[in-house]
Design brief:
The chain contains five helices and five strands, in the order ββαβββαααα. The protein is α+β, with helices and mostly antiparallel strands. Helix 2 packs across helix 5. It is globular and about 50 Å long. InterPro entries: 2Fe-2S-bd, 2Fe-2S-bd_dom_sf, 2Fe-2S_ferredoxin-like_sf, 2Fe-2S_ferredoxin-type, 2Fe2S_fd_BS, Aldehyde_Oxdr_Iron-Sulfur, Beta-grasp_dom_sf.
């Protein structure tokens, strides 16, 4: 099977019953995604597939041939952290750190959903969903933190979400000015 993982073309010869999580961890040595519950209930295994967040323990690797898969290892590096990684550090959005890779990958996907205008269960206005504390909590509810660092996780996501919103507004103004 062939995959594009973190921007690199990878091949693996695995049983067709191998989950995407097991492919990543056991066959490709990408151990950032964690096996928490192995039932899709905790979100520790969250990765991005074609920009959308999924629980990698619930899907077979064979289903994702030729997809763009991004794990926590593909988001940033110690020298150049992704904005959410930096925000998690700044806001102490982790304690034991076990759930952190899944939390960050899920937050990246969630911010993409907000940017695309997708509403959530708590969206007051489906025509322009916002990113307040309730929205973040609802949208991240599939990712559990046993240490209960939720206030810090939400603060980190809110900071990056505000930066994204500000950048989008600036871009819209520029397009309006040049039109």
């Amino acid at each position: 099977m062939q995959f594009t993982i973190n921007g690199q073309r990878r091949e693996a010869d695995v049983d067709v019953r191998t989950t995407l999580l097991d492919l990543l961890r056991e066959h490709l040595a990408l151990t950032g995604s964690k096996k928490g519950c192995d039932h899709g209930q905790c979100g520790a295994c969250t990765v991005l597939v074609n920009g959308r967040r999924i629980n990698s323990c619930l899907t077979l690797a064979v289903m994702h041939q030729d997809d763009e898969i991004t794990t926590i290892e593909g988001l940033g590096s110690p020298e150049r952290l992704h904005s959410l990684q930096a925000a998690f550090v700044a806001h102490d959005g982790y304690q034991c750190g076990y759930c952190t890779p899944g939390q960050i990958c899920s937050a990246v996907g969630m911010l993409g959903e907000v940017a695309a205008g997708w509403g959530s269960h708590v969206s007051a206005d489906l025509s322009s969903p916002g990113l307040n504390t309730d929205e973040i909590a609802e949208r991240m509810s599939g990712n559990l933190c046993r240490c209960a660092a939720y206030p810090n996780i939400r603060a980190a996501i809110a900071e990056v979400g505000a930066d994204h919103a500000s950048a989008a507004a600036t871009s819209a103004r520029r397009e309006g000015v040049s039109a």
